[in-house]
Amino acid sequence: MGDDLRFAADVGIEGILARRLVKPVFQPVVSLADERPVGFEALARGPEGPFHQAPALFAAAARAGLSAELDWLCASAAGQAYREADLPEMALFVNLNPDTLASDPPAELVEAYDELTQERDVVLEITEQSVMREPARLMEAVLDARRRKARIALDDIGVEPGSLAAMPLVNPDIIKLDRSIIQARTNSWAVSQVVNAVLDEAHRRDAQILAEGIERPEHLAVARSMGATLGQGYLFGRPGPLPDQVQRSERELARVTSRNVAHQTPFDLLAPTADIYPTSEEMFASMVGHIENQATQTTSPAILVVNVGDGDYDDESRIRHTYLTSRGIDVFVLGTGTARNLGNRIRGIALTDDDPLLTERTVLFVGSRYGSGAFARRDGDTLHAGTCYNPERVIEAVLTLVNRLPS
């Protein structure tokens, strides 16, 4: 492969994939307690030429519609190199997008992925940009990785602040602060917002914070001040081949408790632990208004999920939700005949005629540090309704709706 990589400067992306002209390099991930490695992140390099660096390589694959093929090739090459290096105590951090995991890769690559997760401690890195773009595929990928005993790292936190709200849904073992946060020249409000949300999530779920882009001692000091216990950057090592020997850190990687992902409706999930009362449509509208008013007061990114069932999504609701999107809140609306694109950051999810959600009404509000909801089920002319202000329960209720979100 070495000769191929050296003399393939004029090969296009299709040729690179066909001839497997991609090699892995590895950068250490260290514990900041003793500055010794806990694992290595696999990065990709193409042949010498325009596609040698990863950004150009992956951009070319995206333009050609070959991103999944490149992802699988990189993961396979990294896994093979890791097994050959014989570093059984070191975790392998590998990037795989939800789109890739939902694709139909060659059998040999699936087998390689299976073997890797069985033989090595694997941390699957998911970029935060995919959280809101493909939520259903993302959660499917997360659940599959956890079944394989892999850990989940949420990457690039801080690049797209709006995705902070979805962090509790992903429930990562490791939260990676982007280099832009660690290397920020000033402690702006936006930086503080990211750090506070990450610290809160890490504390509540016993997750670890990993700081990227640690290149100088002052970056290391900033990372520690932000609560990071893991680090990555040129200060600890540049991307390159795996070492023959390495002294592993005594610190272990975190493993969070998996959340319950129930195949129920929000009412079925929340009603057993709530006080349920008969109410009218008008009274339930007031309950919904209280939850949505909380959303108008938030200064942090959040998610609002609304199920109107077999009712109407009227213009007044659209105006309210459009205002919420202007405050950084992503809104999802479920209902019969709901259009997929409702404007701004409002996404519609049409319910099928046999969906049990048709007789329910739900509003669930989830932020990086809070959660609340109102829910009801119709029985004849009467609604039976309740409320929930337990963030963990509200998050579980949101997860019952994720599998209905379109790709």
TrEMBL record:
Q: Where is the EAL domain?
A: 6-253
Do you know which SMART domains this protein is assigned to? EAL
Family annotation (Gene3D superfamilies)? EAL domain
Q: Which domain of life is it from?
A: Bacteria
The record ties this protein, via Pfam families, to: EAL (PF00563)
GO molecular function annotation: cyclic-guanylate-specific phosphodiesterase activity
Q: What is this protein called?
A: EAL domain, c-di-GMP-specific phosphodiesterase class I (Or its enzymatically inactive variant)
